[in-house]
Amino acid sequence: MEFQFDLSHIAHDQIIKIDNSLLPVGYQKDDPELQMMISNVLDKMGIASGIAQELKSPITSAEKLMRSDHILYLMTEQTSPGHFVVVGLLKMGWKKLYLFNKKGSRTEAMVYCLLDFYIHETRQRHGYGIKLMDYMLKDNQIEARQLAVDQPTNKLLQFLWKYFNLSKLVNQGNNFVIFEEFFEDPSDKESANDNRSSGYKSQPTFGRHGAARQQDCMANILYGAKPAEIQNGNGNANKVEHQQRENVQHKEERHVEVQHHVEVQQQQQHSMDEGDGQKSNHTHPKLDLKNFHTQL
After folding, report:
1. Nearest of 129, 95, 135, 137 to residue 112 by alpha carbon
2. Beta-carbon neighbour count of residue 261 at 10 Å?
């Protein structure tokens, strides 16, 4: 949008930051003429923005800016020496909002809000919008996902999706729109990607942790176990085989011992009967072999 007056004395940079004094931020002196010039620019750009968004009345004007603590970023372009045109505007401000996340939980917070965003039709689709937005984000050291947007148009939503990958809206029950990424914490992402258990399992073993464990099986003590067999995975098979052999040998020894004990008792009884010269008619009780092992 072109104007009849010269902006060269304030448009040192392409983007001018204006506060409620209707003067560039950091401007050191009172300048009523400059204030009138900026007031004229804001009113006309505000009307053009309202028409583009199909609003009943403009949401940006010099009077509204003076009665607020909002900041307005005004983008200009020099078309020829001493001649500037206004390309677009971006109005921002802090507001206390009740926010609802996607689970329905409500929180109260001070949020930096995008209140008005407009690029003149003659300059659209030339990269001016993303340049103006990036300037504002860097100036406030904030990310686009942390913004609340006041009554965004479909064109603005497409812009945020295209350049910032923001598309999942969270309904707030008012005119403001936020995205799911608003509630994300960078530390949560790091913790989510940190799989400590898998990292622990993947750690190599060195020193005493990597050494083979001592084989203390009784079969290995009696019969020995070859280290090579243990390392090749045959230690378990040999261990079972030695254990079975040991069990068989133990059973045979117990059987021989029981038989010998029975024979000794029978011989003693027989010698006692002969010494008395009488044959006993009493039948001796049978030896309970089942419980014999408890008596040894």
Report:
1. 95
2. 14
Neighbouring residues of 212: CB distance < 8 A, sequence distance ≥ 6: 230, 231
Query: How many angstroms separate the Cα of 100 from the Cα of each of 36, 71, 106, 241?
Result: 42, 26, 5, 69
The angle formed by the CA atoms of residues 167, 170 and 171, to the nearest 5 degrees, is: 125
- Report residue 234 as tokens: 């045959």
Name the CA radius of gyration of the chain, rounded. Answer: 47
Looking at residue 273, its pLDDT comes to: 55
CA distance 183 to 202: 33
Residue 197: the pLDDT is 33
Provide the pLDDT for residue 296. Answer: 46
State which residues of the chain have pLDDT below 70.
2-9, 11-12, 82, 186-296
Predicted structure pTM score: 0.61
Report how far residue 263's alpha carbon sits from residue 220's, in angstroms, rounded to the nearest whole number: 36
DSSP annotation of 296 reads: -
Walk across the sheet containing 71-80 and list its strands: 15-18, 71-80, 83-100, 106-119, 148-150, 176-179, 169-170
Find the length of the chain: 296
Residues 6+ apart with CB under 8 A from 60: 42, 45, 46, 49, 50, 72, 89, 91, 115, 116, 118
Q: Which residues contact 3 (CB under 8 A, 6 or more apart)?
A: 37, 40, 41, 44, 84, 85, 86
Instruction: Write the single-letter amino acid at 220.
Output: N
Residue 62, C-beta contacts closer than 8 angstroms, at least 6 positions apart: 22, 38, 39, 40, 42, 43
What contacts 24+ positions apart, CB below 8 Å, involve 111-114? 111/146, 111/147, 111/148, 111/176, 111/178, 112/140, 112/142, 112/146, 112/147, 112/148, 113/147, 113/148, 113/149, 113/150, 113/176, 114/90, 114/147, 114/148, 114/149, 114/150, 114/152
